[in-house]
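Q: Please design a sequence for this.
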């Protein structure tokens, strides 16, 4: 419970324990959830457009993987660090609004690219904008809910990643079907466009409306922060000292989630391509199946996992991390099963289990990190966490699958063997790190 809070518009609607009233808190989560959906739609839509991009721009799988991962991740991770510092000492919601607007414009700009380098630069811009959201969201949600309800709130926010990734494939499939039926598509201000260009523009522009919502929301008060001190940034040496003292728990957590992300993006980035090349599905059907599987798996892993980790081990950081370890065991097994299954239906069912296990740490590990971290360091530590997680996962995962496939399995259904090798290795390493981190977190509490 907070001893003192920094003031803000949310103070008038605060409950007796100093947190915003539940309706206000959940309204905040709802808007952050919607923003997260749009961020993942804009981030993941390229996964459905691999084949038309390769055809129009004459690209290899490895070049496309760099657009999926490295081009986005390089600025998403690097810019997250200074943005996290800014968020820790500034009003958070206007920063999020600016970020949402930027990534939306840059996603639409991808649809105007006619050369590979233009698409690469636009994907970098998407990464810069999206770097604002999660560090601010983790800090805002932690100031909106008591710890006993933090896991569910974080899980609901994190569900935006699965819903967004699923909707990216579903919306992309709808646009592609529209273009296939009409022969071409023409949009106001943009003229006649190919299917992949129209898809980028259609999914990018609505984000500008979401940005406007953050201007009218009340800023929640910061818990455990004396009034008038918010703009006094915690020195970076104190942050690094804190990390060194809790390296086993904090860095173990970061690298564990990084390896889960590695396993996830090694699979999800290529899942529609896998359905097309291995199971002979058309692009639109692959988008529908992949999108539906992502949403179902995300609902199970994020909402169910968030609810479970609020209860497992008393809702402690150590309990949440141990639960992630058990989920990792299931994820490792089904990361092998789903790409090697003999039918698209069996692959999709196994993928749901795989993705459910992978979704658990999105809310659970983020909640554990907030519990382990002092308030004034939360956005900075969250930015470091996201730096590690996304540099390993989003930066390397899609390319690892492409390189293994291009090098060792250079034939159409070779992608299934590449996924079946790369993804389980990442998940197995993550599982060990989760149990290790949980042990350190447990010992630190007992010291």
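A: Design:
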């Amino acid at each position: 419970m907070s001893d003192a809070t920094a003031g803000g518009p949310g103070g008038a609607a605060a409950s007796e324990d100093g947190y915003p009233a539940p309706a206000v808190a959940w309204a905040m989560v709802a808007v952050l959830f919607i923003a997260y959906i749009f961020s993942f739609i804009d981030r993941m839509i390229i996964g459905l457009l691999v084949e038309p991009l390769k055809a129009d721009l004459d690209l290899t799988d490895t070049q496309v993987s760099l657009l999926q991962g490295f081009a986005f991740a390089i600025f998403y991770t690097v810019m997250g660090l200074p943005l996290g510092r800014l968020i820790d000492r500034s009003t958070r919601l206007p920063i999020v609004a600016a970020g949402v607007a930027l990534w939306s414009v840059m996603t639409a700009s991808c649809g105007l690219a006619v050369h590979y380098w233009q698409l690469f630069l636009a994907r970098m811009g998407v990464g810069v904008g999206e770097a604002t959201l999660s560090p601010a969201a983790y800090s805002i949600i932690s100031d909106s809910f008591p710890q006993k309800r933090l896991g569910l709130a974080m899980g609901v926010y994190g569900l935006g990643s699965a819903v967004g990734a699923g909707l990216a494939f579903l919306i992309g499939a709808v646009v592609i079907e529209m273009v296939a039926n009409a022969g071409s598509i023409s949009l106001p201000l943009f003229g006649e466009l190919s299917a992949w260009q129209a898809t980028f523009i259609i999914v990018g522009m609505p984000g500008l409306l979401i940005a406007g919502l953050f201007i009218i929301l009340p800023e929640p008060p910061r818990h455990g922060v004396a009034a008038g001190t918010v703009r006094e940034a915690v020195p970076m040496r104190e942050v690094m000292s804190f990390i060194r003292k809790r390296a086993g728990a904090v860095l173990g957590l970061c690298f564990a989630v990084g390896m889960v992300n590695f396993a996830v993006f090694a699979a999800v980035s290529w899942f529609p391509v896998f359905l097309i090349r291995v199971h002979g599905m058309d692009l639109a059907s692959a988008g529908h199946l992949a999108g539906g599987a992502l949403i179902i798996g995300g609902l199970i892993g994020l909402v169910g996992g968030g609810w479970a980790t609020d209860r497992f081990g008393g809702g402690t950081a150590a309990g949440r991390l141990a639960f992630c370890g058990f989920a990792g065991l299931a994820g490792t097994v089904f990361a092998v099963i789903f790409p090697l299954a003999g039918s698209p239906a069996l692959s999709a069912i196994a993928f749901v289990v795989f993705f459910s296990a992978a979704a658990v740490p999105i809310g659970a590990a983020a909640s554990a990190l907030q519990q382990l971290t002092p308030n004034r360091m939360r956005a900075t530590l969250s930015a470091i966490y996201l730096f590690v997680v996304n540099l390993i996962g989003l930066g390397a995962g899609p390319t690892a699958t492409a390189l293994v496939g291009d090098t060792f399995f250079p034939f159409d259904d070779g992608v299934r063997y590449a996924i079946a090798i790369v993804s389980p290795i990442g998940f197995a390493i993550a599982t060990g790190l989760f149990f290790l981190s949980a042990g350190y977190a447990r010992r630190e509490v007992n010291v």
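Q: Thanks. Anything notable?
A: Confidence is low (pLDDT under 50) at residues 1-13, 226-230. Residues 150-182 form the longest helix (33 residues).
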